[in-house]
Amino acid sequence: MKKVVFGSGLQTSGLKDARISKPGGSMELFRGNGFILGLCVAVGLGFLFPQVGARNGALHPEIVGNGGIALILFLQGLSIALDKMRAGAANWRLHVTIQVFTFLVFPLVGLAFGALMPWIWPGEPRAIREGVLYLCVLPSTVSTSVVLTSVAGGNVAGALFNAALSNILGVVFTPVAVHLLMAATGQQGQLGSLLGEILLLTLVPFGVGMLLRPIVWRWVDAHKRWVHWISNAVILLIVYTAFCDSVQNRIWVQFGFGLTVGVLGIVLALYAIISALVQLASHWLRFNREDFIAAYFCSVKKTLAMGVPLAMLIFGSRSDLSLILLPIMFYHPFQLFVNGVLANRWARKTT
Predict the structure, then answer these.
(1) What CATH class is the domain 15-348?
(2) N or C: at which end does the chain have fewer Cβ atoms within 10 angstroms?
(3) pLDDT tens per residue across span 119-162
């Protein structure tokens, strides 16, 4: 029986990133959950040393952040193997289902949450509602979606095609969707000036990475660990600086511990609803077992690796960026845990 270790990093397209666990004690636990532990450390440092990473602080995140965002998206482009996507390109019913869930059903559910939250959670900060909407328009992960599909015995080629396509579309679609959703909820957004910056800092390095991959793919695949570490370090830096700003502006003093509990409840409810809808749609479409597994793992997952840098671009000028990031930071480890359990359970049914 295969067991999944709940790790994360740069979303890559190969199955060699799969980390199959063996009982190994605390060191194995640390390795498998290193990125999640790193998130906790980054948040803790933000509370302990906010002056270093705050805006105009010693790290100058307003300058360093832009270079980090471009670097992450460049590495994303290098890691997506278009040649491997061709094997799963013909299954259009699966592709349409996954992309509809990722970029239509999820945002519609997010709008419903946004409409209900003022009634369910009076006094909830507006940034949390924006964070939930932002989570809902993010693309799917690549590596973990493919790995989980493989472990569970699903359609790996279909999962790889859709997870990679989701990230390619998400570079442009996510900022546009954020603008439209904010407008739909009566909030302001400056899309025109934003798209120019996004084109420069995301789409251009992402496209350059994809163009260079046929030339340097052997080197990239041979140094995946370093690629992961670099990307993860930049993400953790962005998370740290976001929390520094919120601590400096005393946002957490204002809302207290109840904020964390409320966001966790929203994340659990959101995942349960999307999970149920994916299963109902797969049953209605009469997917076979392999296609259902691919549809499930690609449709319910959202990428933190692309979500954090895009949030920095879209909401980076705001002092409450950490609150906007909170839903995706909670959703990320929760989806890894639940989907890992499901992958192991479904894998047992094939043995």
Answers:
(1) mainly alpha
(2) C
(3) 888 777 888 988 999 999 999 887 788 888 988 989 988 888 88
